[in-house]
Amino acid sequence: MRIIESVNTSGTYNLVLERYLAENYVEDTFIIWTNKLGIYIGKNQNTLEEIDQEYVEKNSLEVFRRLSGGGTIFHDPNTIYYSFITKNEREVKDNFIHFNNIITDYLNTVGVIAELSGRNDVLVNGRKVSGSAEYYHNDLLVHHGSLLFDTDVAFLAKSLTPNKKKFISKAVNSVKARVDNIVNHTDLSVNDFKLKLVEYVETRFKGIKKRVTSQEDTCTQEMIESKYGTWEWNYGKSPTYSFAQEGKYTFGIVKIELNVAKGMVKDISITGDFFSQADIHDLERQLIGIKHNKEELRDALISADVSKYIVGVSLEDILTLMVN
Prior knowledge:
Layout: E1 2-5, H1 11-23, E2 29-34, E3 38-41, H2 47-50, H3 53-58, E4 62-65, E5 73-75, E6 79-87, H4 92-109, E7 115-117, E8 121-124, E9 127-137, E10 140-148, H5 153-159, E11 167-169, H6 190-204, E12 208-209, H7 214-228, H8 231-236, E13 241-249, E14 252-261, E15 264-272, H9 280-287, H10 294-304, H11 315-323
Helix pairs in contact: 1-7, 10-11
């Protein structure tokens, strides 16, 4: 088995590298890395319904839609992420059990008493310290997971706490679990813990350490630029949803309701007891087909001169109602 200790701290990069290696399979591979701050959405989830977008932007968090299902995962530099790329030899349930047992066994070898719970959670003292997801590419399995070593749980909670009342969709929301950090159960540092995991995999699978080649790096970057790093992939692929928010101002009440499909505004209603100098329906029509994205909506609202449709409103007032 090839072992890659990625030095890239972008979760997007490492997950797209994983995809490239699956599409261009040569040998079974284990990848391990740590990330800068980021949020990784399950393939079938509504990104905006999973995150606090304002908090994400304020803290420059990377947002990426994984190719695997499952729930949303938060990463910081003290969370360890790993991936196995192998020939698929088992049923879905058995794959989860097989690979999570590897993680459970490793934890126990370093004195962290762990057990597998359900399909894809690894627990220590009844609290989740690791979760996983997987997807298939032809006859290959990509199984990846995270290990909460010394994760900033308070920061995690804030970044993954949107106002659910604003959204109505068929997307499956993440189930919030009781979590714990591995650091509370070991004297190892995050780097030593990571090193020992590499050694464990190296021994168990007769692994050989290999660096990412220049071709693999170039192709990964190209895949990010052309697809996986785009708004269309990370936000636009969210399931169809409705979004509604109301604000009270000195000039009146404004309520905005949006229907969004493939990330684009398909229908919009702006109502309230405000005064207008122009027909509000004209503004609504100008916003149809715009991405449900702050910058795209900002440009559209500037062009429309929104203040003539809602007397007294500022650009930021109405923008906040549409996206935050």
